[in-house]
């Protein structure tokens, strides 16, 4: 007859061996240069989704049309007003020496004060440039939004896989704990703890599944496709962690950020708006020419009988309403000053945003290295140590549950840090208006180029 203590010890040892093997299978590679393996079935590639978003997104199409509309506005504001043709019929002819006046035909052309149309054309050109940069901004925001959504879906996908394998592992442990409890070889606390861990994993899996569906709907909206077409696996891009020059990142953001470019163009547009306000307070002119059609005189011998007189006219407006004129100037000056202050405000917020995103990038990089080099190896060592613990069932089983929870948290945290690093890179590209290769430190540039050659 085998003693109960020895049977219990053998069961627990087999459990530890099984769990250690499962942990080894579940482990994620520490090599950050390897992409996450694609899942079986259809894999949605980031490049394909980006091309679909650029080609199909209605917001981007609308911005492109607004840009075209702004360009079409330029020749309109530079053109003179249409001339006016007048015709008049004399119901009762006016008798004159040379004959009765029967009809009157005239043409009139009004034009603003010289320089007004030039200023209006320059302002419209700046508005068109603003529309162009706004289109570039929407394109940039769309690309970054697709990247952020894709990276989040990768995280949720990998997290669900980790939770699924952990659930299978914990179910085996729960069954063993219940079996040992029925034989009075485990405590009720062991069973309750295992059930609590299993319930928590069920909740986490349900939460990540629902978040995945929400993120799929968001990605489908970005690429303007039905949600049913955003089904399949996701492949995490190559994670290349490099050192960036913060001051160069700030410089690039101050030079190329689309919001700043729009604000600076708005300042120039409001300068022309001030000029237009000044021209609006000046008189406008009207030139006209009128011909009066005259019939034959009653006396055919009359000199110049039936001669048509021609009248030339010149008119001008009188901008006498000084209160209105002054208000117009104050409005233009206020808009110009507000535009300048917006540039200053955006410059300050841009510096703060670069600092915040740079911290997020560096911190995510530190976390990835911390988990890969220190915490995950320590979690693996903890599993090895657990096999050497005393055979007291309460202590061993509680230690297993704690080790499992810590290991899973470390794996999820490492995956979150890697995702946050990619997101921070994308958002830095968003605020700097381009790729980050120009901000690499000299040593990072060399390693980056070597990595690209490989």
Please give a handful of descriptors for the protein shown.
disordered N terminus; 454 residues; Outer membrane efflux proteins (OEP); alpha+beta; four-stranded antiparallel β-sheet; 6 strands; disordered C terminus
Tell me what you see in this structure.
It is a single chain. The protein is of the alpha+beta class. The chain has one domain (4-453): Outer membrane efflux proteins (OEP) (Up-down Bundle), CATH 1.20.1600.10. It is built from ten helices and six strands, in the order αβααββααβααββααα. The strands form two sheets. It has a four-stranded antiparallel β-sheet, with no helix packed on it. Helix 1 packs antiparallel against helix 8 and helix 3 (58-78) runs antiparallel to helix 4 (116-182). The protein is elongated and about 140 Å long.
Based on secondary structure, the structural category is alpha+beta
Please report the first level of CATH classification, the CATH class: Mainly Alpha
Give the number of DSSP strands. 6
Taken from the alpha-carbon principal axes, the silhouette is elongated
């Amino acid at each position: 007859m085998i003693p109960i203590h020895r049977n219990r010890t053998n069961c627990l040892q087999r459990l530890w061996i099984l769990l250690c093997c499962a942990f080894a299978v579940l482990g994620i590679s520490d090599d950050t240069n390897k992409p996450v393996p694609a899942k079986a079935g259809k894999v949605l590639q980031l490049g394909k989704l980006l091309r679909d978003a650029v080609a199909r997104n209605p917001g981007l199409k609308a911005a492109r049309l607004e840009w075209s509309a702004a360009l079409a506005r330029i020749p309109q504001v530079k053109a003179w007003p249409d001339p006016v043709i007048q015709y008049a019929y004399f119901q009762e002819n006016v008798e004159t020496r040379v004959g009765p006046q029967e009809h009157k035909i005239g043409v009139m052309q009004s034009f603003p004060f010289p320089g007004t149309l030039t200023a209006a054309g320059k302002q419209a050109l700046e508005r068109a440039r603003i529309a162009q940069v706004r289109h570039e901004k929407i394109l940039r925001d769309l690309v970054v939004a697709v990247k952020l959504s894709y990276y989040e879906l990768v995280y949720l996908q990998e997290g669900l896989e980790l939770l699924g394998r952990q659930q299978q592992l914990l179910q085996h442990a729960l069954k063993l704990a219940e079996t040992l409890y029925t034989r009075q070889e485990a405590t009720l606390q062991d069973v309750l703890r295992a059930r609590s861990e299993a319930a928590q994993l069920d909740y986490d899996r349900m939460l990540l599944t629902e978040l995945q569906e929400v993120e799929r709907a968001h990605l489908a909206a970005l690429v303007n496709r039905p949600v049913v077409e955003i089904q399949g696996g996701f492949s995490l891009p190559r994670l290349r962690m490099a050192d960036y020059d913060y001051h160069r990142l700030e410089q690039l953001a101050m030079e190329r950020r689309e919001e700043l470019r729009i604000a600076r163009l708005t300042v120039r547009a409001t300068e022309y708006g001030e000029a237009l306000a000044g021209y609006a307070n000046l008189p406008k002119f009207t030139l006209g020419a009128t011909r009066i059609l005259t019939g034959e005189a009653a006396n055919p011998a009359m000199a110049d009988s039936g001669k048509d007189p021609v009248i030339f006219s010149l008119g001008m407006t009188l901008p006498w309403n000084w209160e209105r004129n002054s208000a117009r100037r104050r409005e233009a000056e206020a808009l110009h000053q507000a535009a300048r202050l917006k540039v200053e405000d955006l410059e300050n917020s841009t510096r703060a945003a670069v600092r915040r995103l740079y911290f997020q990038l560096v911190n995510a990089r530190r976390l990835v290295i911390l988990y890969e080099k220190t915490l995950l190896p320590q979690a693996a060592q903890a599993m090895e140590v657990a096999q050497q613990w005393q055979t007291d069932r309460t202590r061993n089983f509680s230690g297993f549950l704690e080790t499992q929870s810590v290991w899973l948290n470390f794996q999820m945290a490492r995956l979150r840090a890697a995702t946050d690093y990619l997101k921070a890179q994308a958002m830095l590209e968003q605020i700097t208006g381009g790729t980050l290769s120009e901000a690499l430190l000299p040593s990072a540039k060399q390693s980056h180029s070597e990595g690209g050659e490989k």
